[in-house]
Amino acid sequence: TELSGYEYINISTPRPGVGLVTFNRPRALNALFTPLFRELNDALRKLDKDAEVGAVVLTGSEKAFAAGADIKEMKDKTFSDAYGDDFIELWSEMASAIKKPVISAVNGYALGGGCELAMMADIMYVSMGATLGQPEIKLGIIPGAGGSQRLTKAVGKSKAMELILTGNNFSGKEAEQWGLAAKAFQTPEECLEGAITTAERIASYSRIAVKAAKEVVNKSQDLGVREGVEYERRVFHGMFGSKDQKIGMAAFAAKQKPEWENA
Ligand code: CAA
């Protein structure tokens, strides 16, 4: 179908309603570069539009989620190249354009841009032994795909500053303890399975309600509490215009399972 034929990613449907995107650039530990993002963005946009899909899982291999931006692709870039092409802008489409929930299942290395991409997902799951970090300082640069902002919001300023200024790695176990990851699993298989199970659960709910829930939670990252609560209230009121609100509440009252119309 139209979701095949990619070179650097594989797409599958492990469970009803779940789109699984797996990075497939094993020889470079899934290092991230423009051709991969063209494919990823294309696939995510198609999954976002696909009525059968309710949530997406993004993963790599057991060895690497993604070992960061492709250093060999970047090393000769000039300021004009970077500024002229708005380097990295292409990477953030997942965070700006995709309305369905994305869960990152992080095993192995998630460094630099790999860690940033994992943080762009709506929910991060990790295996305990995963290796995360923002090592850009060691290359004479800084995080460029949102790491300084998303890591800081998640773990607080002092810890984020320490991680970004030292370039020290941290484990999946730590990521979960600090609240950066929602759950940590013993093994990579359990991590992927856990992400797929959660995606399947999300996909079983009203697409309209899920979309609205993601939208309002994300607003909390940009708005102050007062404006955020006002925004939530407007969207909440809007839910009473949906069929699924009537369906969900009628089913509760009748002690039945709701049959969502996603409308
Ligand atoms: N870019 C390009 N190639 C990479 C890469 C990267 N980020 N990470 C790994 N590779 C390549 C290696 O060059 C190697 O290729 P060759 O076989 O052709 O030499 C192959 O993947 C396997 O890697 P290693 O032999 O290094 O594997 P290892 O198990 O010994 O080490 C590692 C694994 C610790 C992850 C190590 O590969 C490493 O340190 N990678 C770089 C990590 C990094 O600095 N990432 C941040 C990049 S900067 C960034 O992301 C900017 C941003 O904010 C957007």
Please name the defining characteristics of this protein.
45% helix; four-stranded mixed sheet; single chain; 2-enoyl-CoA Hydratase, Chain A, domain 1; six-stranded mixed sheet; 10 strands; 12 helices; binds acetoacetyl-coenzyme A; alpha/beta; Lyase 2-enoyl-coa Hydratase, Chain  A, domain 2; 263 residues; 2 domains; globular; lipid metabolism
Looking at CATH, the homologous superfamily of the largest domain is 2-enoyl-CoA Hydratase, Chain A, domain 1
Please report the total strand number as a whole number. 10
Order of helices and strands: EEHEEHHHEEHEEHHEHEHHHH
| Gyration radius over CA | 19 Å
Share of residues in strands? 5-15%
First-to-last CA distance: 27 Å
Find the CATH topology of the largest domain.
Answer: 2-enoyl-CoA Hydratase, Chain A, domain 1
Biggest pleated-sheet summary: 6 strands, mixed
Overall number of domains: 2
**Alpha-beta content class:** alpha/beta
